[in-house]
Amino acid sequence: MGNIYLQLFATFFKIGAFTFGGGWAMISIIEREIVDKHRWIERDEFLDLLAVAQSLPGILAVNISVAVGDKLRGGRGSLCAAAGTILPSFMIILAIAIFLTPDIIKNNPVVSKIFMGIRPAVVALIIAPVITSAKAAKIGWKTVWIPVAVALLIWSGWAYLSNPILYIVIGGAAGYLWYSRRIHDSRKHQEGGES
Questions:
Q1: Which of the two residues, 53 and 191, has the higher pLDDT score?
Q2: Domain boundaries, the chain
């Protein structure tokens, strides 16, 4: 496939068509396609893109597809990638709305068994990118407490402490301060070495 627009559309169409469980379940497939297979972006860049896409309003997979399309071919690339991501879901939901009523889904044992079988697979698809992202972000035994503590606080349901936006802001501010401090210390060290 030589046409990059067609490649973007086909890649994200495949991601959208064969992923169940929403944006988090798509992450490992998106990473494998755009980082490992096509090499459109580097793994570190993917982690940054994931953080930004997660912070923006809208669907995670669409946000990622728009960013990748924009990086490769600007606005047209974004449109192709986003269309590829959205179209499969639209077609599946349209087919379900036309052919399957809520009674058929609830009372049909075959459909119920299919959905019961999909559930564990979705959990695995969500856990896999968490592990690979943690490795790529260099989260070790000294820093693993941060995501665990944030997850527990969000899960707790305590008023303002369960708001994910709070932790995005705190994480961004802490990262800025930490890297600013490192740069300051590095410059200070260099100046000390030169004199």
A1: 53
A2: 4-138, 140-195
